[in-house]
Every structure is written in C-alpha cells, then in structure tokens.
Amino acid sequence: ARPVVAIVGRPNVGKSTVFNRMIGDRLAIVEDRPGVTRDRIYGTSEWNGKPFSVIDTGGIELDGEDMMLKSIRMQAELAIAEADVIVFMCDVKSGLTQSDEEVAQILYRSRKPVIVAVNKVDNMNRMDDIYEFYNVGFGDPIGVSGSHGSGMGDLMDAIVENL
Ligand code: GDP
Ligand code: MG
Known about the structure:
The chain has 163 residues and is an alpha/beta fold.
C-alpha cells in the first residue's frame, strides 16, 4: 500500500489549502460515515516518482473552544495511528499558539516523523518569523504559502525523504 501522509494542525492554519496543492485533482475518497470521521478527506500525490496518500484531518473540526480542542486532539491521535509521516501545520501570521502546543504535546508521543510546515509565508520578509517554530521541537520548520505555492517543493522533498 502507499505510504500515508497526514496534515494536522489547529483550524485555519491552511491545512486544506496546502492539501489541495499537494494532491492537485487527485482527490480519492471523501468519507461520509456518520460520526467523527465524517469529513476526513483523502487524496493521492507523488513527488520525485514516489507515490503517497494524503489525509486532510481538518475535516473533523468542530465549533466552540472545547470542541475545537477535542477535535484537534482527535486529529493528532488519528494522524499518529494512521500516518507514516505527519505534517504539523502552523501559521506564521498568528505565530506559535497554545493550540499549536496542544497538538505538539500529542505528536511528541508519536514515533512517526513529524515535519513542521509554517504556512502563510506569502513573502520573503516573513521567512525570519518561522524560526520561533523551532521551539516546538521537531527540527527545521519549512516555510510555505498555500496561497502562492512557494515552499511546496521543499515541503514535498522533506515528506518523501521521510517516507
Ligand atoms: P484549515 O482550516 O487549516 O483547513 O485552513 P484553510 O485551508 O481552510 O485556510 C484557512 C484560511 O487561511 C482561508 O481563509 C485561506 O484562504 C487562508 N490561507 C490558506 N493558506 C494561506 C496562505 O498561504 N497565505 C494566506 N495569506 N492565507 C492563507
Ligand atoms: Mg480545512
């Protein structure tokens, strides 16, 4: 079977935007089961000749502070269970937040490789701001812009190196 890459992170960091960039038009399955996994979205991708599946875990996002925390925890657990590589997505505009730390706490327990992608780096002036994300402890953060597509090559390189 193809290796699986899961994108996790709190709501609005740009998971779905980056997911769409990664898969192009190769949307494979939209889960429609009742319950918490309802909107999990799968796609397929390929880089340097290496095929893999991608999960956008953000489909299970729920409203309200409590529910949001619950759902991002669930996503992170899911990613740990199912993925071979985890992309932990953050947002350079908001900087490192308490919710990011919550996700990181769960990912520390994983033995899967975790890549920190810092989204919304829409221009090079923002590049200096990604260094604070070293503090989450998963190595070099990779700056990307889901809107513009910049940094996607670096992210894909890091993913396939860890498959
Ligand atoms: P998700 O909740 O993590 O799946 O995030 P979305 O992909 O739905 O994006 C949340 C919001 O951030 C939307 O308004 C996007 O248009 C915006 N967004 C996503 N990627 C970028 C980016 O690279 N730069 C900027 N400036 N905005 C972005
Ligand atoms: Mg989303």
